[in-house]
Specification:
Blueprint (H helix, E strand, L loop, with lengths): L2 H34 L6 H9 L1 H18 L5 H6 L1 H25 L6 H27 L3 H15 L1 H14 L4 H11 L2 H24 L1
Length: 215
């Protein structure tokens, strides 16, 4: 297989992966908005939501909008064809990261799963806010590559809302009690996502150096 064919296959695989992530993010984002509107969700959970209404609303609405818009930020043809729309949607995305992250940080100490889950969700909220801040400041300085890397990290953690539900479903199938699965899920829902992004960024950096050295 030639280098051109390999590159085309990799590009196709990347587009399929981004498309699937976008669809899954939209599904969970719509669920979050429906939950906020009381169109879905467990009534018992709604009562817990009401007990911390403001931070819960910040987290659910902010996180929901992030999931609805985040995947499109990585569609190359959208960025190139509609750069102004990309910039404005990016502003909306990062604003919602701010609101959702602050809400999540306030909620983390009272989450189910004890201290392990509290620290898992709390750490996620802090790193989510941290990466969002660096994504914003890097693009303000005109550092496009750094901005893209920080946005990838940020979206990987936002996608934890999707993988959390996947893992919880798997644990339920495996008949693992919620009290045992939730503390674990509080970490594995986002840490592997972040590791995968760092691995991808490291490979991309190595490939770019190799191409530069041969040209």
């Amino acid at each position: 297989m030639s280098a051109t064919e390999t590159s085309k296959r990799q590009d196709t695989g990347r587009k399929i992966a981004i498309g699937l992530m976008t669809l899954m993010s939209i599904a969970i984002g719509l669920y979050a908005i429906a939950f906020q509107a009381r169109l879905t969700g467990n009534p018992t959970f709604h009562l817990r939501f009401d007990a911390s209404y403001l931070p819960s609303s910040m987290h659910v609405i902010g996180g929901g909008i992030v999931l609805l818009t985040g995947g499109f930020q990585f569609w190359t043809w959208l960025r190139r064809r509609y750069p102004r729309a990309h910039r404005w949607s990016g502003r909306v995305y990062l604003s919602c990261v701010l609101f959702g992250g602050i809400g999540g940080l306030i909620l983390a100490p009272n989450s189910d799963g004890g201290l392990v889950a509290n620290y898992g969700f709390g750490t996620l909220a802090v790193l989510w806010l941290f990466s969002g801040y660096h994504a914003y400041t890097s693009i303000r300085r005109g550092e496009v590559a750094a901005h893209r890397a920080w946005m990838m990290r940020n979206y990987a953690m936002a996608f934890g809302a999707v993988t959390l539900r996947i893992y919880l479903g798997l644990f339920q199938i495996w008949e693992v009690p919620f009290s045992e699965s939730y503390p674990v899920t509080a970490w594995i829902s986002w840490v592997p996502n972040l590791i995968a992004v760092e691995w991808y960024l490291a490979l991309s950096s190595t490939e770019n150096r190799r191409v530069t050295a041969t040209t």
